[in-house]
Write a structure and sequence with these properties.
alpha/beta, single chain, elongated, binds S-adenosylmethionine, Rossmann fold, 2 domains, 7-stranded mixed beta sheet, 36% helix
Length: 317
């Protein structure tokens, strides 16, 4: 018996392992892994299961589904909305998911320019005209000796032959819309300045607080070597943080990458914060970091350091 399927004794039915629908989806996922397409359309997308699986692939920036039956598409289309986690940690890629109601028999400009078009369990012979090469294959191998029946699921893979810039001369592009858009979700992305700014501000504050805590812990542990009385330690910490005059501190912050204290205020040089990989990766340049946090984070008068208060730390001690 082929390991690809089992024949059930009583019914004579063939059961594929894994089930054929899973093999079909896996086939498409493998194609996505291979071609890394940015724009993928699923024709005859039904309840959007494949689209939902594909939205987790980081190479994909545009996902579109089309089905002639709007009600089946709407059944589970809520799965295509961004999740709370997508807002908490916006991705670096952009992603827009759109569902259209209509028939593949009609042309619509919204279906132009896709890198990969999937069409599972739906007979189709339209894509070749628009500059795609086609390869026929399938999943669900037939039993030995019955190879002439072919795959249980026949698959045609259409891959865009032409770069986006040079279109095939003979293609006549549709211009009139034939489909009705029934769903559209634009995912939060760091490519959107609004999400980038909020991610940078929260990363800068997180980093600045971590540096401040480490500085204060260091000052406290230095004092602990001399005195274990918590009240005395608190006073000594206050004395340590008061050790710079305003003028000295501004000069020192500019020159140094190290944080400084003055009274109940800690100055954390932006350069130091920028040296942290996550901040550096998010902003790319020091100028961009400044631009994104100006007006959102309290900075020293010359804009070279983030200013934080030590008061809460003193209370905790
Ligand atoms: C057998 S289901 C396959 C669903 C999905 N592709 C999958 O593999 O799970 C076929 C789907 O194609 C849709 N369909 C049939 N004819 C269509 C057409 N002319 N244009 C668009 N969708 C069509 C049906 O409504 C149905 O949802």
């Amino acid at each position: 018996m082929d390991e690809n399927f089992q024949e059930e004794r009583c019914t004579g039915m063939i059961k594929f392992t894994p089930p054929l629908y899973k093999q079909r989806y896996q086939f498409v996922k493998d194609l996505v892994g291979k071609y890394k397409p940015k724009k993928v359309a699923d024709l005859g997308c039904a309840d959007c299961t494949l689209l939902w699986m594909l939205k987790f692939y980081n190479c994909i920036e545009v996902l579109a589904g089309l089905d002639i039956c709007a009600s089946v598409m709407k059944e589970k289309m809520h799965r295509l909305y961004p999740l709370p986690a997508d807002y908490l940690q916006p991705s670096e890629r952009s992603l827009t998911v759109t569902l259209h109601h209509g028939s593949v028999a009609h042309e619509d400009p919204c279906m132009l320019g896709f890198d990969l078009v999937t069409c599972i369990e739906l007979a189709l012979d339209a894509a070749k005209r628009y500059g795609y090469s086609v390869e026929f294959t399938g999943v669900g191998n037939p039993p030995t000796g019955m190879e002439d029946v072919g795959f249980c699921t026949q698959i045609a893979v259409f891959v865009k032959k032409y770069p986006q810039t040079s279109e095939p001369a003979q293609s006549k592009k549709p211009t009139e819309a034939a489909y009705k858009t029934v769903f559209r979700a634009v995912y939060p992305s760091l490519k959107d300045e609004k999400y980038l700014q909020s991610a940078v501000v929260s990363e800068v504050m997180f980093t600045a607080h971590a540096i401040k805590r480490s500085l204060l812990d260091h000052l406290v542990s230095e004092q602990e070597d001399y005195n274990d009385d918590p009240t005395e330690r608190k006073l000594q910490l206050q004395r340590s943080v008061n050790c710079f005059s305003e003028e000295l501190e501004t000069l020192a912050v500019e020159k140094s990458m190290e944080p400084l204290t003055n009274g109940s205020v800690v100055y954390i040089p932006l350069r130091k914060i920028f040296s942290f990989p996550k901040v550096n990766q998010l902003c790319g340049t020091f100028e961009k970091l400044r631009e994104l946090i100006t007006g959102k984070v309290t900075l020293s008068s010359d804009g070279s350091a983030v200013v934080l208060d030590t008061d809460h730390e003193n209370e905790e001690n």
